[in-house]
Amino acid sequence: MSAVDPGAANTEGTEAANGNRLRCNNCGSEAIVTKAGGSALTCCGAPLEVTFGR
Questions:
Q1: Which pLDDT score is estimated for 8?
Q2: What pLDDT shows up at residue 52?
Q3: Strand arrangement of the beta sheet that strand 2-3 belongs to
Q4: Contact of 16 with 40, CB cutoff 8 Å
Q5: Band of the pLDDT at 3, cuts 50, 70, 90?
Q6: 16, 28, 36, 48: least surrounded by Cβ within 10 Å?
Q7: CB-based contact 15:27 (threshold 8 Å)
Q8: Which domain range does residue 41 map to?
Q9: Which residue intervals define the domain Desulfoferrodoxin N-terminal in the entry (predicted)?
Q10: What is the rounded CA–CA span in Å between residue 18 and residue 36?
């Protein structure tokens, strides 16, 4: 998983809030947001899906 460069435009990926659980539909990796920072999250070149805490 990688965060988009904070200085770049935030147009691709998933924006999530604290407590959201994210999942990659390609490889199955999961992450929980503990500190939202405004960066869009991607994995395997695709946006992560919010699976909890929408």
A1: 47
A2: 82
A3: 2-3, 41-43, 46-47
A4: no
A5: low
A6: 28
A7: no
A8: 1-54
A9: 20-49
A10: 5
pLDDT digits over 14-46, tens only? 778 899 999 999 999 999 999 888 778 889 999
Model confidence at 10: pLDDT above 60: no
Q: In what order do the strands lie in the sheet with 49-52?
A: 30-32, 21-23, 49-52
| Measured distance CA(45)–CA(1) in Å, rounded | 9
Domain count, the chain: 1
Q: What is the dihedral of CA 46, 18, 29, 15, to 10 degrees?
A: 0
Contact predicate 32/19, CB 8 Å? yes
Question: Which tokens hold the place of 30?
Answer: 């999961």
